[in-house]
Design brief:
The complex is a heterodimer of chains A (583) and B (506). By secondary structure, chain A is mainly α. Chain A contains 24 helices and 2 strands. Chain B has 20 helices and 2 strands. In chain B, helix 15 runs parallel beside helix 19. Classes of the chains: A mainly alpha (583), B mainly alpha (506). At the A-B interface, helix 5, helix 6, helix 23 and helix 24 of A face helix 6, helix 8, helix 11, helix 13 and helix 16 of B.
């Protein structure tokens, strides 16, 4: 049964993807219906799979030496992420029914979305690193296809290719790490890696650990690869909600969480993970302070929140990171979809042109506020509990200065979140924007996610039990929701964090509202728009490659004489090399 | 062994070649042009279909009884795993190209020559893969080259195509001279020609090792021109982009790879220096990858872009073979042969899809002009199938799953990491980064096709028929299925890898 369900959770969306493509763009109603139907089915399947959680593989298929055997393991980590991918996925698809209505090439859109959902499930379920990589790259392929869905827009194409290339460079890390492990262990199974990590030579293990950290940072848009996510915001908004907030960007967190027991002994690994998370959380929180594009502001905040999760893993808080991942997936999807409803309604992403939209779109405003409060970390929303939990873990097991900087980031988060909300929904009307109606499908998706934002923290006990029972190698222990609530409410760190948030909100109330519309200092703008210089680094690499390629074209002169001379020169070189090496 | 079974896969295309030519010429006066064209096409298709029968029989005999030999006077043939892999690849792509060429070449002046030369080239390539002695190896190789020159310069009214054919001819001739010089050195010192006998003689001889190394260098550079080792590749971008699209597919998909097989056979007599050849392969592999990718980065003509990408894929195959020879890794050889097959499928598909689009946009209107990136804008809406085919081919070449190219590259990576050598590890990471780099020129092509605003060429384009699209569908499915089930080709790649290790005495 578990085997069938695990295969189906990948197979159902993939079948739907093929069907949507086969139905053809002439029948958009059918395409919408099929996409919603199949994504809902996969969501139900994933929820059913919750009952079959175990640490044993449910599918085990021997392929060959170079590929190992394909194993799918429905353990707590995998199933919780699968559930997030499929459930948020079906809500995003539902939202798309209204959002994408009337768009051309719907078949390609839904194909890529459904293909992505299946691949995301496969990525977390796979127990074989080859297939983790296989699905990992499929999610990158879908993400690229969807970011540049509007191919006529050069910005969208650039954003898509940038995302593809940066995540692929990170993917090289996963490939190298997986194969390094294979060359020593003779197996691609993650379980083997975890079980026999201490038998590996120290340099090998360090190589794998840091290679995986690079892969994770690139996939989850962490420092120094954080530049691709803001540009990925050219994607249709349901995609930003699903792929670039709730699921694919979590793959890096997943990889670190999955493999961290093997790497804990590697010198400087935990410190590096902590640092990557901390720097990402802080840098992008600064960048979100002055962003004027609604979706980019949300993207910065996504990187920042993912930074919290990475930081949690570095501090040894696997459960905390997964808890925040769950909360974040729900409230950030809510924020993105609300933003999508706004953008769909007014036709711009520039927050400076919005303002007082709350009067005309009360439903969306309320949904957005719920998400914003969760992102800020105010009780009793899910973001409050998970963020406080991470901060508590951080206070216990990371250097104090790092903890303080994370606190600062929490304060910044509160500030930019309120700024965003205020700019869009409150204040005065700044531009005569024509507001379209919000569709029913959109409202259903928003309503369900808002409900989730209130309630998913109640799942903590279940999540922690699932993780503890099915991940024996991680050495986790079960904690009940009530226990967490008690612990957090009695921990001083919670009250300190709330104090920081409150101070930040006071600051916003006093100066922020007025300053929100005035342009920030030029140097700060330049710094944040260039992603603290890393955008320039990207551009240098690209322009360096291009100029090298241009110069290399001189070698293809088309002159036969030179070509023959080249052949003879090469012969002499080879002879020289051979003689030199032989003597 | 029954003579017909394996000699048939060489002789059937070879013998039918003149008949196909004559059938097109003899009826010239009275027959209607169209009927003549149908006759030529169907005969060609029939001939290549018939060649499959001896191939399958030879395959069965080999899988049951191992290496088979056949000696007819001075022609020595030996069928091993490598021969069957090559024959399978050549016949697969050949069949699809003949099918594709039906509508594509219909009504061209000299259509009968096209099919005659194509069949001859197919037969000669299979023959080359079975050659058992150095002299015959050279003869098969030259004969194959002659047929390919004529096919490259098929559009003899086009200056660019003649120029390409000329460059190809001259540079290949230089390569052939070097190969011949190498053979002369080996023959004069070893006193034998049969590959296995020479290997014995070389290992026992007391001639200075520098003599053998020089002969090997001559083989590598001589055949290397044909395989397009960088910097011997300068003929390739012209030749592959100017030839008719079906021939471009053959050239990139099998002809250069068959040159590599010839090189391996020739080098096998100098197996004692296998490590040196392996190292050279790794060096050339790295050069080919980087150079091919960087050059492709700035191309706007589709077929030229694909031609440069072939350079980098030769680099990947060379890397696999280099690992095999330098580190005794059967897995490396298997990966290289697997990549040879997947590259044949994907690059063949890419060239045929580009060909189908050229046929739709230009050729049917008798316009001879290259297909540029700008012409592709919005092509997917009007020609969904060729656009999808080209996307799958390109993304597969870029090594994205779930396509075949991912799996074959993976196999080479596995072999590389299994050596545990730090330099090879660095090379593997370099190769992976190159693969990423290649997406920087594949992806924009895909993006351009899925735009909504069509280019003027697309707006004016004509419909394309079913027949042209059948090969595209077949290769698309193969590319997808091998991406999901890479082990399906193991029965072909593993014997080939074992044979390679055998002829190198490992």
């Amino acid at each position: 049964m578990a085997g069938i369900l695990t295969l189906l959770v990948i197979g159902i969306p993939w079948l739907g993807a093929v069907l949507v493509l086969l139905v053809g763009d002439k029948h958009p109603r059918w395409q919408h219906a099929l996409a919603v139907g199949f994504s809902l089915l996969s969501g139900i399947d994933a929820l059913l799979l919750m009952r079959f959680i175990s640490s044993a593989s449910s599918v085990d298929l021997w392929l060959s030496t170079a590929f190992g055997s394909l194993t799918l393991i429905p353990d707590g980590l995998a199933v919780s992420l699968t559930a997030i991918a499929t459930v948020v996925g079906s809500l995003a698809v539902l939202f798309s029914v209204d959002y994408m209505r009337g768009e051309k090439q719907l078949g390609r859109y839904y194909f890529l979305v459904l293909f992505f959902i299946g691949a995301m499930a496969g990525l977390v379920l796979s127990g074989n690193l080859l297939f983790t990589f296989f699905f990992w790259e499929i999610t990158a392929l879908c993400s690229y296809g969807l970011i540049s869905f509007h191919n006529d827009d050069p910005l969208a194409v650039r954003g898509g290719i940038k995302a593809l290339l940066i995540t692929q460079v990170g993917g090289v890390g996963l490939l190298a790490g997986a194969l390094m492990g294979y060359s020593q262990l003779g197996s691609f199974q993650i379980i083997e890696l975890l079980a026999r990590a201490n038998t590996l030579p120290a340099p090998t293990l360090a190589f794998i650990a840091f290679a995986f950290l690079i892969a994770a940072a690139a996939k989850s848009a962490q420092f120094p690869f954080h530049t691709w996510l803001p540009d990925a915001m050219e994607a249709p908004t349901p995609i930003s909600a699903l792929i670039h907030a709730a699921t694919m960007v979590n793959a890096g967190i997943y990889l670190l969480a999955r493999c961290s027991p093997a790497f804990e002994s590697v010198p400087y690994w935990r410190e590096s993970v902590l640092a990557v998370g901390m720097i990402s959380a802080l840098l992008t929180a600064f960048m979100a302070l002055t962003a004027t594009d609604l979706k980019r502001a949300l993207a910065y905040s996504t990187v920042s929140q993912l930074g919290y999760m990475v930081y949690a893993i570095g501090a040894g808080g696997i459960v905390a990171s997964q808890f925040h991942l769950l909360s974040h997936a729900v409230f950030k999807a809510l924020l993105f979809l609300s933003a999508g409803a706004v953008i769909h309604a007014v036709g711009t992403r520039d927050m400076r042109r919005m303002g007082a939209l709350g009067n005309t779109m009360p439903f969306v405003r309320n949904a957005f506020i719920v998400g914003a409060l969760a992102l800020t970390g105010l009780p009793i929303f899910n973001g409050f509990w998970s963020k406080e939990y991470i901060l508590e873990v951080g206070l216990e097991s990371s250097p104090l200065w790092m903890y303080l900087l994370m606190l600062l980031a929490a304060g910044l988060t509160a500030f930019y979140t309120f700024r965003m909300t205020w700019l869009v929904f409150f204040g005065s009307v700044r531009d005569s924007l024509h507001v379209h109606e919000t569709g029913t499908a959109m409202k259903i998706a928003l309503g369900l996610l808002a409900f989730g934002t209130f309630t998913t923290w109640l799942l903590f006990g279940g999540l922690s039990a699932q993780l503890a029972e099915s991940l024996p190698q991680h050495g986790l222990h079960t904690e009940s929701t009530w226990h967490l609530v008690e612990a957090l409410l009695s921990a001083p760190s919670t009250w300190v964090a709330l104090l920081v948030v409150a101070a930040s909100l006071m600051l916003f109330y006093i100066v922020g509202r007025r300053a929100a519309l005035t342009a920030p200092p030029a140097w700060f703008n330049a710094l944040s728009e260039s992603s603290f210089g890393f955008e320039l680094l990207n551009r240098w690499v690209v322009s360096g490659m291009i100029s090298l390629a241009e110069r290399l074209r001189l070698t293809q002169s088309g002159e036969l004489n030179w070509n023959i001379l080249g052949i003879l020169a090469c012969l002499l070189t080879v002879l020289a090399v051979l003689w030199w090496s032989a003597s | 062994m029954n003579l017909l079974t394996f000699v048939g896969m060489i002789t059937i295309p070879l013998i039918s070649s003149p008949f196909v030519y004559l059938s097109g010429r003899l009826g010239a006066q009275d027959a209607v042009l169209k009927q003549r064209s149908y006759l030529v096409r169907s005969l060609a298709l029939l001939a290549i279909a018939a060649a499959w029968i001896p191939f399958v029989m030879a395959l069965q005999t080999f899988l049951a009884g191992g290496v088979q030999e056949y000696i007819l006077e001075s022609i020595w043939l030996r069928v091993d795993g490598i021969s069957l892999l090559v024959a399978g690849a050549v016949l697969t792509l050949g069949t699809l190209v003949v099918l594709f060429s039906g509508p594509y070449m219909a009504g061209e002046v000299g259509e009968e020559k096209y099919y005659a030369m194509l069949l001859a080239m197919i037969g000669l390539m299979i023959g080359l893969s079975c050659a058992a002695d150095l002299f015959n190896l050279w003869v098969w190789f030259e004969a194959m080259a002659v047929s390919s020159y004529l096919l490259v310069a098929f559009y003899r009214e086009q200056a660019a195509s003649l120029e390409a054919g000329m460059k190809y001819l001259v540079q290949s001739a230089v390569g052939s001279v070097l190969v011949l010089a190498g053979i002369a050195i080996v023959l004069s010192n070893a006193g034998a020609l049969d590959l296995l006998e020479v290997r014995e003689a070389v290992s026992r001889s007391d001639v200075s090792r520098w003599t053998w190394l020089s002969a090997g260098a001559l083989f590598i550079i001589g055949f290397g021109v044909k395989v397009a080792f960088v910097p011997l590749h300068t003929w390739l971008p012209d030749a592959h982009s100017q030839a008719p699209s079906g021939i471009s597919a053959m050239l990139s998909g099998v002809v250069i790879e068959v040159g590599l097989i010839a090189m391996l056979r020739a080098l096998s007599v100098l197996a004692g220096f296998g490590e040196s050849w392996g190292m050279l392969f790794l060096i050339f592999g790295a050069l080919n990858m980087l150079y091919g990718n960087l050059m492709a980065l700035r191309q706007t003509v589709l077929k030229r872009l694909l031609a440069f990408s072939s350079l980098s894929h030769v680099g990947y195959i060379l890397t696999g073979l280099g690992i095999a020879l330098a580190f005794d890794s059967t897995l490396g050889a298997q990966g290289a042969f697997f990549h040879l097959i997947t590259h044949m499928l994907m690059k063949g598909l890419a060239f045929l899809a580009v060909g189908a689009l050229m046929y739709a946009l230009f050729l049917q209107k008798d316009i001879h002009q290259p297909l540029r990136l700008a012409d592709l804008s919005g092509v997917a809406q009007k020609y969904p199938l060729p656009a999808l085919a080209l996307s799958i081919a390109l993304l597969g070449l870029g090594g994205l799953p779930p396509l075949a190219g991912f799996m074959s590259k993976w196999q080479i990576f596995v072999a590389g990491f299994a050596t545990g050598n730090a330099w090879v590890l660095a090379l593997m990471i370099f190769m992976a980064l190159n693969s990423v780099l290649s997406l920087a020129y594949y992806a924009p092509v895909v993006n351009a096709m899925y735009r909504q605003s069509p280019s003027p060429a697309v707006t004016a384009g004509l419909a394309i028929g079913m027949v042209l699209q059948i090969p595209l569908v077949a290769m698309m499915l193969a590319t997808l299925l091998l991406g999901f089930f890479p082990q399906w080709l193991e029965w072909l790649t593993l014997p080939a890898a074992t044979s390679l290790m055998d002829i190198f005495g490992r």
